[in-house]
Structure formats: structure tokens, C-alpha cells
Amino acid sequence: MNAIFRWLADRTGMEAAVDRCENHKIPGGAGWGNVWPAAIVFTFAVQAVTGLVIWMYYSPGAQSAWESVYYLQYEVTGGCLLRGIHHYAAQVLVGLSLIYVVAMVFRGTYRAPRELVFWTAVLVGLMALAMCLTGDLLAWTQNGYWATQVRVKFLTLLPVVGGDLFKLAAGGPAFGHLTLTRFFALHAGLFAAILAGLVLLHLGVLRRAEAVEAPSAEKVGWYWPNQAVMNAVACLVVMAVIGLLVSKNAFRGGNDGRPPAAYLGVELGAPANPADAYAAARPEWSLLGVYELSNMFPGDAIPGLGVSWKVVPIFIIPGIVLLVVLAMPFTGRVRGGYIFNVAVTVVLLLAVLALSIRVIRHDLANEAHQAALAAGHEQAVRAVELARSPEGIPVGGALALLRSDPKTQGPELFKLHCASCHDHTGGKGIDVLAEESSAPDLGGFASYKWIEGFLDRKQIDGPKYFGNTALKDGTMVGFVKGNLKELVDDIGQEEFQKLIAVLAGEAALDSPRSEDEIDEDTKFLFEDFTCADCHKFYDVGSLGAAPDLTAYGSREWLAGIICDPTDVQFYGDGNDRMPSYAKDPDDPAANLLTVREIEMLADWLRGTWYEPGQAAK
Amino acid sequence: MVAESSTPGGKTRPESALEPRRGVLAKLVAMAAWAAAYLVPAAAAVAAFLNPLRVKSRAGEPLRLGSIDALPSDGTPRKFPVVMDRTDAWNRFPNQPVGAVFLRRTGDAEVEAIQVVCPHAGCFVNYDPQKNVFFCPCHIASFDLSGKRLDETSPSPRDLDTLDAEVRDGGEVWVTFQNFRTGIPQKVPEA
After folding, report:
1. pLDDT reported for residue A254
2. Distance (Å) from the alpha carbon of A3 to chain B's nearest alpha carbon
3. Which residues of A touch B47 (CB under 8 A)?
4. Is the Cβ pair A231, B12 closer than 8 Å?
């Protein structure tokens, strides 16, 4: 053992290195003010370790990035913890760099021989920020996608080269697979390497500066273990802060049965949807100041330059600030330079703080923003529910799952195509109010309650049913207001309720029953109540006068009436204003809605969609 | 001790200006705190790294492959593709071909199922109707119809792998599909 150690030591000079480390002296003595570099190295190391394992799960691609992060978060042991630590440690790294640089400005420790110590610290902070900016996109969530889209589009503000810069950053004319591969290469490759190099360089020049200063310092202290023990405790404190951030949602309570991955660490937002701009997209806390600053400038061109005013807050002001900060070792030499640097730093910090508070307060008071946040959260929850369903994620990715989900697509389709006339209230799906209600309320359509109200003489010509339609003076209204009461009295209330129950039972079907499932008693009901005079019900009655009640309100029936209410199976020539959404199944281009859209509408109206805990269809 | 004169123009300070070095306790605390700080991220990383050990293959449930009527009564083997829902990490692929088996009628209502994967190196064996044997083209190995090795020195470390097969409900052939590790003499299911 000893021989091996000797052999190695002779060839590596490691004894001398250990000796240098053990006997390194800190000018000014060991102190808590010296722990920042160690905390930064620690946080970077945490990022390297967690990042490497995340890399083993991550798949950059527009149909696999969100999905692979979902897998890590929800299916991998410790995955949500790993991702949470990586996310919050990134924020902590930016914060630590900021505190460190500000502390240097206040202590004037950018002066000779520490210029490089200061500059490398500033650059570490900038690279930490670059890591946040590239990392933000990688999970391919709505927020990351749209916030990054805005940032990268800022490049196009630059004259001449703007358009080319955008393409270079995005990997093409628009965001997609190549944006992810590019951002990933920058994040885990180039930027990570530069950051590692800068951290090492910083430590090197710091050591050198301390060694130069120590002999002339009034007091010197040992690195080992006097400073080291403080550094280690600082690392522990940093980790505790990261731990608190990771588990903050667990402390808030209200986790009602959700899996830990839903509240531990950082929420996985809804998958990026290039067709649905996310209005609540915001940068991380560290860039809120620049965000708000850019909002204070108009988008139009600076007169005579043809360049947008936005160039000033995005490029010119941050650029000047960076130059002023980098010049501090020089300004600090001039008389009054130290005071100037401190003043500049204080003013900058206050300005960024004020701008950040402004945007946070504005967003909190902005109902539209809060609504967009809530909608985004709901979409995220739904995307995860669907991804965890037994059917799993198709090759088209989680977005394809969301796009064919009746629960979330139904109300959108209804608003777009049905709510110009129909209300939808009190159904299983959310309430949607018509622009101007002029057709039956479809909430709970064909349910027992709905049919009972329809067959109520007081309600049928009211606004919830036929009141605002051409059918107000039709045969059905006349029948309900006329003969029906007498028939119910004759045949009995119990039989009437049975009739309603039979119809409501039909609505629970996907498609019609086979004929032999309908017993004679049921058929008699339709004859006794004279329904069969106008309506067909299986082999009772005939088509032509009124809608077919066979499998009334079922998936197939609903899809059919949406496709073409003028079909003889439905209203035929007696149709009021209801459009045919897919009259010709053979000519999809001529139809207002696709077959899948109509199916989703039908499923939404009937309240049949996947909910967690259900088996696969 | 480090040579203090190595610093440019440096003068050694009197010992009084040097803080006393702290003792063993401080060293232990330093190492313990440092290790504790790394504990949580390292544990999460190791747990996630080891996660594949926890993921089980979905094989092992009996699958319906076809009807016994499709098998020649003389015992000639026929190859049947095995179609299953396949899960690849986060993606579900419904009805994917995951492999194949040879089915051979051994009685009126009896069927034998043999994996097409050669136990040697994982190639697919073929049925050679002329010689009436299974033949692996990769390393020239022959097997008889029950899967026994025919060569004097076979490249394959074991006979072809048989699978549990049964005939249900008047003719449906159900097979418990399973892949086995290749290259070893024992028949060990892939987990």
C-alpha cells in the first residue's frame, strides 16, 4: 500500500498539492465572509452530479423532451427530487454569484492583485444565468417554450445580422427538434464546460491572490481546517436552502392524494403547444428586472435608425451595466472610485428590485394573468393524468394526448362551434354560456333530469329547451303542452318515469343495442305515450317525422346529429338553424369539423372521458 | 511548512499574526458537514441511476397466438409472430411485433412452442423443410424439431428454449412468451 502511494506520489506530486492546500493561508484570517467561493463550487458540483443523471433520462426532441422529463419526474425513483434539486440549485447558483460579486464591490476586493478574481466571479454569474436560460427550454413546457421564444426573437431586433442570429440560436427558421438539440448541446456541453473552467480559474486566481497578499496582511488564518470548516457548514446551509425550495410545496399542504412528483421539486408544466401561445410566460426571478425594463420601452423604431426601441433595454442597457461592472477594478483605483462603485451597485440593485417587485405586483393584480396561470396549471395536471393513464403516451407525444382529450378539447370546440346558440350549464363538463342563447341548453343533454324538464309543459317552450327556436310552435311542444298530461294521468306517473329512464338509459350507450335487447314492455311504452306516432325507436315507429330515438343521446347518435341534423334520422327538412358540421364523410376538406373533433364533442357532452383510476378503453 | 518567501517581495510575518490552527474536532466537523451537504443530491442521483433495476419486463402473461387448425397435422412447425403492447420508457406502442415462436402440433389438442431466438447469440433460427430441422444461419447450428442440438459440437450452449403452450376453448393456442438470456447453458428468463 505504502509502495503504491509512494509510486503515485512521486509521479503526481500530490503530497506537495495536499501540503499547499493544508498550509494555505487566508489573509485577514478565516471568516464567514470567505465562504462564497466554496458555496459556489459546491452548488456547481451539485449541478454536475444531478445534471449527469438527468442526462441519462433526457431525450431532446419535440415529441420526447417533455415526455422524458415526465418519465423522470413521475416514474423514476428519486426523479422528482433530482429534477427539483437541479432546478433550484441553478437559481441558488445565480443568487450566490450575485451576492459574492456584490460583497466584493462592498469590500473593495476587486483591487490589485484581485482583478481577475473579480472578473471571473462576474463571468461565473453570467454563465450561471446562461445555464438557466438554456435549461429553461429543455423540458419543452409551455412556459419554457414561450419565454424562450420571446428571448430568442429579441435577437431579430439587431440590425443586419438579427435574422441569421435567430436561425443560429433556434437551429432553423422555427422552434423544434433542432432548437432542443442545440440548446441541450449548449447547456450540457459548451456552457457547462465554460462554467466549470471559469470556476476552476476563479479558484486558481483567488489562491494566487491570497498567497500574494498573505505576507503583508496584518492577520492571516489557516485554510485547513479553520476556513474549511466554515466552508463546509456554508455548503450544508446552501443545501438546506435548496432542500427547502424543493420541498416548499409539500409544506403548503393540500396535496390530497396526489403523487409526490406532483408537488415535490418543481412542477412539470403543460407540454409546449406551438399553436397555443402561453400568455403567462415569464422569465425566472433573476431576469424579471430586465423583463419589466423591456416592457417600459415601445416596440416601434427609433426615429432615423430603423431599429426598435426594445434594443435599448435588451442589449444596450445590460451591455453598459456589464461594462461598468467589469471596469470596477479600474474605477476603484481613482479617488472616490470605491464610493462610486458602491453607489452604482446599490442603485442597480434597488432598480432591479423595484422593477421585479413591480412586475410581480402587476401580475398578482392582473386577473387575465392569474387565469392564464391557472389554465396552464390545469393543462399540466391533465397532461400528467393522461400520460399516466393505462394507454400511455403515443408516439405523437403528450401534446397529441391533450389534443384528443374530450375533457379539455370539448369545451374549446363547444365555445368555437356551438356556443353561438347553445348554452351548456349543469352538465358534467364545465359551464359554457352562449353569446346569445337561442337553442336548447345542452348541459346534461339526454340525462334523466334533462328529458324530464323537456317533457315538462312549463319548461319545453322556455329558454332552456325550444323557447328560442323555430320548434317553439312545433308538434312536440304542442304535444307536451297538450295531450301528454292526459296520457300520464291515464297510464300512470310510474310508467311515465319508466319511459324517461329508458330514454336516459339509451344515452349511456356508445352505439345502439341489438334489437333483441329491447323487450316488448319498453316498446309498448313508446306506443302508449304515442311517441311512436312520430319517432322511431328500434323497430317501433318509422323515420321521417321526427328524430330517431334509437340510442338517443348515445355517442353514435350525438356524433350523427352534429355531422348532419338535416339527415332523415334527425330533423330532416324540419331542421331549424343547426349547421351540418360534417355532411359528407368522404370529403373531409368540405367539413367544418373532423370526425375526431365531433367524437370529442359528443364525449364531452356525455361526460365520458378518462379520469385517473379508470382502466383503459 | 510552506515557504513564505515564495511570494514576490514578501516578508514573513511574525508568528503572532497567525491564527492558531484548529484541532481534530474542526477537521471532523468540516468533513462531516461537507459529506452531509452532498448526501441528498448524491442519494437522488444514485437512486435515479439505479432505477432500471426496478423496472420489470411485461413478459410472462399467456398470449393467444392463433388456432390449432392452422398447424399441419404432420407436426411441421409454423412460425407465428408475437404481437404485444410494447412499452419503451414513456411511450406505449399498441400491438407491436416483439418476437416469434415456432408452433408444432404434437397431438390432437397438443402443441409445442419453441422460441425462435437461438440460445447462442440471439439470432433467429429458421425451419429447414428439406432436412426437417431448425437451423441457425449465424454460426451454423442445427436443432431437431423438439429443439435438441444436433451437431457434435454445437455453438449453442443449450437446446432451443421451449415455451409453455396450451390449447384452450376448442382450438385457441395460448403461449407464455418469454425471452431468455443467451450464451449461457442455463435457461434463465430475461427479467
Report:
1. 62
2. 24
3. 77-78, 81-82
4. no
Q: Domain ends where: B10, B32, B55?
A: B55
* A82 to B18: CB separation less than 8 angstroms, yes or no: no
Tell me whether residue B107 is in a domain.
yes
Contact predicate A60/A395, CB 8 Å: no
In a domain, B190, yes or no: no
Closest partner CB to B11 (pick from A50, A215, A387)? A215
Q: Is B3 on the interface with A (CB under 8 A)?
A: no
CATH number for the domain harbouring residue B169: 2.102.10.10
Q: What is the pLDDT of residue A508?
A: 87
Name beta bridge partners: B135. B126, B142
Distances (CA, A) of A593 to A178, A396, A418, A564, A579: 32, 21, 12, 11, 11
Q: Which of B8-12, B105-109, B147-151 has the lowest mean pLDDT?
A: B8-12
A46 touches chain B (CB under 8 A): yes
d(CA A481, CA A485): 8
pLDDT digits (tens, 9 = 90+) for A252-291: 766 777 888 888 999 999 999 999 999 999 999 999 999 9
* CB spacing of B92 vs A391 below 8 angstroms: yes
Query: Would you say residue B6 lies in a domain?
Result: no
Which domain covers residue B154, as residue numbers? 62-176
Same domain, B31 and B82: no
Residues whose CB is less than 8 angstroms from the CB of residue A207 and which lie 6 or more positions away in sequence, other chains included: A24
From the number of C-beta atoms within 10 Å of its C-beta (0-12, 13-18, 19+), residue A299 rates as exposed
* DSSP line for A172-241: SSSSSHHHHHHHHIIIIIIIHHHHHHHHHHHHHHHHHHHHHHGGG-S-EEEIIIIIHHHHHHHHHHHHHH
Under a CB-based contact definition with an 8 Å cutoff, are residues A241 and B38 in contact? no
Query: How many domains does one find in chain B?
Result: 2
- Does B103 lie in the same domain as B41? no
**Each residue's pLDDT tens digit, A288-306:** 999 999 999 998 899 888 8
**Nearest chain B CA: its distance from A373 CA (Å):** 26
Q: For chain B, say whether A56 makes contact (Cβ under 8 Å).
A: yes
**Are A229 and B33 within 8 A, CB to CB?**
yes
Shortest Cα distance, chain B CAs vs residue A49, angstroms: 7
Nearest to A500 by CA among A539, A542, A448, A450: A448
Give B141's DSSP letter. E
CA distance A464 to A442: 9
Q: How many CB atoms lie within 10 A of CB A25?
A: 23
Strands laid side by side in the B62-67 sheet: B62-67, B172-176, B165-168
Shortest CA distance to A26 belongs to which of A16, A17, A37?
A37
- Order of strands across the sheet that contains B133-136: B126-128, B133-136, B141-143
The Cα B174–Cα B64 span in angstroms is 4
Give CA–CA dist A508/A552, Å, rounded: 9
Average pLDDT, chain A: 93
Q: Are A417 and A581 in contact (CB under 8 A)?
A: yes
pTM of the model: 0.87
d(CA A342, CA A348): 10
Residue B8 forms part of a structural domain: no
CATH architecture under which domain A47-281 falls: Up-down Bundle (1.20)
CA nearest to A400, candidates A412, A380, A383? A383
State ipTM: 0.88
Residue type, A353: L
Helix axes B24-50, A79-107, angle to 10 degrees: 140
B129 reaches A (C-beta below 8 A): no
B96 in A contact zone (CB under 8 Å) = no
Q: Which of residues 39-68 of B touch A (CB under 8 A)?
A: 40-51, 54
Interface with chain B: mutation pick from A43, A235, A247, A264, highest number of B CBs within 10 Å: A235
* Domain layout of chain A by residue ranges: 47-281, 288-365, 404-606
